[in-house]
Write a structure and sequence with these properties.
Keywords: Cell membrane, Glycoprotein, GPI-anchor, Lipoprotein, Membrane, Signal. The protein is mainly α. It folds into 2 domains: 277 residues, no CATH class; 37 residues, no CATH class. Helices cover 49% and strands 6% of the residues. The strands form 3 sheets. The protein has a 3-stranded antiparallel β-sheet. Strands 1-2 form a two-stranded antiparallel sheet. Strands 3-7 form a two-stranded antiparallel sheet. A hairpin with a 4-residue loop joins strand 4 and strand 5. Helix 2 runs antiparallel to helix 8. The radius of gyration is 30 Å and the shape is globular. The N and C termini lie far apart (128 Å).
Length: 353
Amino acid sequence: MWRRLFLFLFLTLKVSPVDDYNKDVFNNLCGITKRASSILRLQEWNANVKHDLEEAIYGKRERAQFNKDGEVDFGGDCDLFDSGRSQLCSFKGRGNQGTGRNGCFADSLIGTVLCICTPGNNNPKDLCSLGGLETVGVWSGWELREHEKNLFKKVWEKIKERCTSVTRSELIREDHSRTLKKAVTNVTSKLRYDNKGYFYLSGDGAGDCSGTNRGNICSAYKGSDKGIAKVPWADKINEAIEKLETAQATASTSTSPIRMSGSPAAEGAPGEKIDLAGQNEPTSHETHDQRESDVTDTQKGPSTGHSDTAKSRGQRSTQRSRETDTASLANDPEEDGTLITRQKCVLIAALIS
């Protein structure tokens, strides 16, 4: 009897569909997205850190950039000829020949999660244990149509529920940087090398990430000359953390400590939920260089030419302003009555003369 029971359980588990395929990978990416979004919210005043984290989470404007609703805009540096899942999720390209214009989704955290968790052909429909995606279609092959774009939005809605919502008490914790750096290293250190110059996140480590089967549900990154995976979103996060740590070290020696919880989002009830995706809309209509230029211009103030003009205008307006001030003094005396007294003296002097 026990033998039959064990055999039944074994066969049941053997043939049951795996509904949590890529669950562990997703949980790791989800944690990274949440921590990076938290730092972005707290450091929204820091232009350099904000720029790097926005690119890490949402992607580059010139490549493929997502917004808070999961919609994607493609830039000129993303090859849209035959833009299918393989081309967007892998830097490898067709026939192991990367064009330098592919891997646009693998650039960012959101794009990578879509590559890992969007259903494809002949594989579990409930990837990453997101649930509720069994009937919304699949993304596979070498085409990117309106259907796939709508599918991305559906998957992103599921991702937002788990990866971009924190309580205020979670938001203001001071270990975001350290925990985030450790989480990124944990993911990148487990990438699978194919001995051909590319590293795989999920999949069988040999496919084209086209979504045609379970082994092709993946994202692939090119290796450096030193045999290290070049993961754009991970590199951007590490750059942001380095800049943040440098700023904190500088602030520790000054009288003005750096703000980690000065954002309005950090104020309020500790248990209140914050939608980080809604707060952190990427600044897609201006570049980082433009923002830095604006800051520099503001710091410099008006140019010499403008100051000369201002001086001449000031001279012309001096007489008018004095007359106006004299007239207004009678209507706006100070509490001690000194202005009224001065006005009376002027009037008496005029009568005597």
